[in-house]
Write the structure tokens for this entry.
Amino acid sequence: MEAAALIMESFEGMESQFDYSIVGHSGDRPVIDLVDFGDPPRTEAERMKVLRTMVAHTQFTRSGDHTLEAIRQAKVDVLGDGIDGEEADEYVVIAVSDANLRRYGISTGMLKRIVEDKPEGAGDIDVRTYAIFLAR
């Protein structure tokens, strides 16, 4: 939640320069839309609503993991959206997760492949992908 709040606060007022989305993932599914491309939360109240949605979802989700599927889908989705439908200068996916990869049988090799793979239909477009894992 802190990372999501930081992202939303960081891009406030920069909507004409950056387009972003925030998508969650859980044991239930790989895509939980929180902030859509082209529709960032513009007020503190809207940002709090996103954070409340995150909390609500965690209360009712099963254990499990869709980290790899979420990263793969994010790379596809970022190519499909741009500011006002225009092609972007750069495409970046930043995955932030508290997943215990070992618990779910996800090796570093599997993660590396997902991060480095080019999304289908990307052509010569590079989607820079980063994964940040939070430990408790």
Notes: The chain has one domain: 2-133. The chain has a mean pLDDT of 86. Strands lie at 22-24, 32-35, 91-97, 127-133.
